[in-house]
Amino acid sequence: MTDRPALSVFCAVALRGAVQETLLPEFTRATGIAVDAHYATTSALVQEVDEGARPDVVIGITAALEKLAAAGVLDAASLATVAKAGIGIAVAPGVPVPDLSTVEDLIRALTAARSVAYSRTGPSGVYLAALLPKLGIADQVNERATVVDTGFTALALVDGRADLAVQQLSELKYVPEATIAGPFPAAVQHYTEFSAAIAVSARDRSGAAALLAHLTASPAQSAYTAAGLETAEVA
């Protein structure tokens, strides 16, 4: 370990499994540079930045990072895509795993559930809230939904509030007690793209650049895939 200060990293919670469990430990072992990581939704991280927080590196939803770059907070030239997250479904322990091959299968799973847990403000929840009316099942699902303000929706499966949870697959996987049923059918799948960038005010710019290179290097893709994410090339 070097005597240089730890890098400060803000990271979207959807990437926590890959970043916290694999990529940051690998980076520290390879470089000796410690990392102090803070995880939250991208919207919460942006709010903290707006209130004056200045991490060295930010990892979050690409569109939000582009806005921070336009505002002069992040170095636009450093902005690099790392992975994409698709939306999926998890079920409570002991609950039969539904078939999700088609949109019709998805509709059956959502309407048959005792309660569907989804996020109020996260990308997956916002998307699902818009999708349900298009599928013609908004009232049927929402009248008994478990809407989660923040955090992992699959926790509602573990404590019994719901028997089906919708969220980005990487977030569902972070609750090991839940069983992943699978991704949404391709016809209604929605991907959220995540990028990383160096802050203009980074205290250790060389360390931040080294971390960015580590996060975006080809070997990192296996960590993203293992955490339920998909490579940046996914359409």
TrEMBL record:
It holds the Pfam family SBP_bac_11. This is ABC-type molybdate transport system substrate-binding protein.
